[in-house]
Amino acid sequence: MILPTPMLLQVADPTVAASTGVFLIATVVKMLAIFTLYMVGVAYTTLAERKISAWIQDRHGPNRVGPWGLLQVAADGVKNIMKEETFPGDVYKPLFLIAPALAFVPAMITWAVIPFAAPWGSPWGRIDMVVADLPIGFLFTLAISSLGVYGITLAGWSSNNKYALLGGLRASAQMISYEIAMGMSTVAVLLLSGNVHMSQIIDQQVATNWNVILLSVAFLLFLVSSFAETNRVPFDLPEAESELIAGYHSEYSAMKFSMFPIAEYANIITASGLMITLFFGGWDIPFTSWDNVGPHTGLKSAITFAFFLLKVVAFVFFFIWIRWTLPRFRYDQLMALGWKIMLPIALLYIVVIASAILALDATGLSRGTVAYQGALFAVNLVLLVLIVFVLDRGRLISPAYSRLERERVARLRLMAQQSDLATSRES
Amino acid sequence: MAINVKVLDRPIADTSYLRATVKGMALTLKHLVDPHKVTVQYPEEKWTLSPRWRGTHRMLTTEDGTAKCVACGLCPTVCPANCIKLVPGEDEEGNRYPLVFEIDEFRCIFCGYCQEVCPEEAIHVGRHYENAEYSRDGFVYDLERLTAQTHPVCEMWDPADPKGE
Questions:
Q1: Which fold has domain B57-148?
Q2: How far is Cα A35 from Cα A266, in angstroms, rounded to an integer?
């Protein structure tokens, strides 16, 4: 007896795009899955932060709630929701209420355009493993991620508190400054891929090599900028608890306060996802090519997804590791780094990399060849050496003393010697 | 700028931010993979106290359960914090015993002189540190409380064996 085959299976062709109905169902499923995973990931990043900070400082970290403290996340959530919400006098309530959500939502929306696995040639048609496969993908992330500053600035402004306002102002200044460097650093990526479509950017890296090798300097700039964008140490001046109490969220309580750390961790995960997509080949598994070619089975999607998650976890760990290592910048150092160092380097890098690509293409080399990639890598290596060994001599980030030039030091010494107030200290 | 500011010449390598960053990250990573945890997980783990630890007091008893104290009055005399309250009593056979024996553990400085001076080896400072009470009154230990304590007591310092070996 021949069983009747369902209609959908009969017309299935893995290479064609899915029909509208399948597309809608798949999108809803992807949205739910990614949202759930994202929220759980954000929650557990808070635990990871506490655990890793504890380990770095030779402590144990939270270990009372559940095995190894794994349920700490739930306990924190319950606590924050149960707590009393306070409204200080004269807060501007509409903005005060909406600011925490404004801080969090952009980070989550950005995630929509990040491809997280190889496309699945399902029996019902090809399903792209990205929530919204926007052709303008990267421009979308630039547009949305700039909105994140509104949450923090408005929170600071609506709190009716001078410290909160200062924190909010610092946040806006800092995020706008570093957004420019960030956008400029990614121009090189777009030059190489020739497209702003996230999937195309990954395809380009699959076809040639990861951008972290081809465009190392851009990666360095993007990394530093994303630390500034996520308000993480060493760029956590908006909070700066030693100067501004807690900056923009001093006046918040309960779950509204909790939304700001959640937004911060959401931003970390999103920034990790962006860095992976732009510079670390997205879901690409290195040193193999079987994951990039057909047939696109479900297993292949699952494995590439696991690899993508692994990369995200690695980056989140890196963010946390940096936080518990470095001290905070001074405000003038922060601004000087953003405007005087990062932006010029990014602009210069665009020119260099555009010329390099133009010259290499003119030689007729294929982009997939080792020679092409090696040449690009050599250019980056030279620039990195220049940055590390020439610029990073107390010029990039300088303590106060080293900013005095030699002549100025000599002049000061002379003044000190001639002065009646001078002590007999030998310098 | 003030005239007398001392301007130091730093080696130019010391002003490199990236190198300092890498060095710091190596250090934190070292602690991450090879932690030297010293935290004691208190309710589950506890210290092993030194045999000479001087904590809250304990009054030892004879076999029939009465305190060994003969109310000689040496301990309230020697006590530098004046925390021992002793009212001596005497029974029909002429044996002295304490009518009231109270130690105010808040006043006590845990010097251990009372244990050293006691001729009957009755009063001891204990090897014990979990002393929480719900009221301040609870810290005035009376005779009943002192005899009811069961924790180990402090070993006296022996001049012949100064390190306690």
A1: Alpha-Beta Plaits (3.30.70)
A2: 11
What does the alpha-carbon distance between residue A63 and residue A55 come to, in Å, rounded to a whole number?
A: 12
Distance in angstroms (rounded) separating the CA atoms of residues A141 and A387: 28
Of B3, B19, B31, the CB nearest to A58: B31
With CB atoms and an 8 Å threshold, state whether A404 touches B41: no
CB contact under 8 A, B7 and A392: no
**Prediction ipTM score:** 0.71
Helix (H) or strand (E) holding A125: strand A125-127
Report domain extents, chain B: 57-148
pLDDT tens for each residue of chain A, 427 residues long: 454 444 443 334 455 666 778 888 888 888 898 889 888 999 899 999 999 998 888 888 888 888 888 888 889 889 988 988 888 888 888 888 888 888 888 888 888 888 888 777 777 777 778 888 888 888 888 888 888 888 888 888 888 888 888 888 888 888 888 888 888 888 888 888 888 888 888 888 887 888 888 888 889 899 988 888 888 878 887 777 777 777 788 888 888 888 888 888 988 999 899 899 888 888 888 777 776 666 777 778 888 888 889 999 999 999 999 988 888 887 777 887 888 888 888 999 999 988 888 888 888 777 778 888 888 888 888 888 888 777 776 655 555 555 556 667 778 778 877 776 655 554 4
CB contact under 8 A, A419 and B4: yes
CA nearest to A182, candidates A271, A269, A104: A271
Residues of B with CB under 8 A from a CB of A: 1, 3-10, 12-13, 15-19, 21, 24-25, 27-29, 31-32, 35-39, 41
Chain A: residues touching B (Cβ < 8 Å): 52, 55-60, 63, 321-322, 324-326, 388, 392-394, 396-399, 401-402, 404, 409, 412-413, 415-416, 419, 421-423, 425, 427
> Would you state the structure tokens that stand for residue B140, as one six-digit string?
């005035």
The first and second tokens of residue A193, run together, are: 């891929």
Per CB-CB distance under 8 Å, the chain A contacts of B40 are none
The strand pairing partners of B100, in sequence order, are: B87
Q: Amino acid identity of A331? A: Y
Among residues B139, B131, B133, B135, the alpha carbon closest in space to that of B53 is found at B131
Could you tell me how many CB contacts below 8 A there are between chain A and chain B?
77
Helix (H) or strand (E) segment spanning residue A120: strand A120-122
| Residues A409, B3: C-beta atoms closer than 8 Å | no
DSSP code string of B68-127: -----SHHHHH-TT--EEEEEEE-TTS-EEEEEEEEETTT-----HHHHH-TTS-EEEBS
Phi-psi region of A359 (alpha: psi -120 to 50; beta: other; left: phi over 0): alpha
Give the dihedral of Cα atoms A12, A17, A19, A20; nearest 10 deg. Answer: 160
Q: What are phi and psi of A17, to 5 degrees?
A: -65, 155
The sign of the torsion formed by the CA atoms of A119, A122, A125, A127 equals negative
